């Protein structure tokens, strides 16, 4: 009996760990923003509750390894409860993102969001934005960050400030991991003369995705002098 119970537990662990690994991969990598992470978290929480209900009813459609076993009723109920507890842990760990949930629609669907649902300091600019036919087409054709950065600063200053704040939220550990990896590569034994100022400059260049606007800077210069 003990051996059978161990087999059930192992089969359940194989299936749920596979799902957690799949979920974890969606949160990694470059360019994952807070609103995207939160959408993945909410989606996975809904899946967990679905799995919990299904296991309670002896439905193992989403657990292929467990499906090969003849599961006892008490084991199925135990796994159902474990998934419910896992969902509660997700709610607790991602509570900070829950506080931002009301702000994400303004960033992701600005042309359909209700004006009354946004802060007063953003309402007038949002009205101008929603009634801009050209802007609506630009939103469809550009990446989200490109669209928000392309808005006229003198007309949509508050909206741009809001978008900038949302985009700079740390959604994953990718930037931290990239930064420490770069720092370790540059602070080697062969670079004993590396100063803090030089390291700071290196870190800023390597971890940034912004391309220097050399052509734009040259055009703004009133006089150009060639080197002698």
Automatic annotation (TrEMBL):
Annotated protein name in UniProt: HAT C-terminal dimerisation domain-containing protein
Organism: Sinanodonta woodiana (Chinese pond mussel)
Classification via InterPro entries: HATC_C_dom, RNaseH-like_sf
Transmembrane segments: none
Pfam families per UniProt: Dimer_Tnp_hAT
Start and end residues of each HAT C-terminal dimerisation domain: 138-203
Highest taxon above the source species: Eukaryota
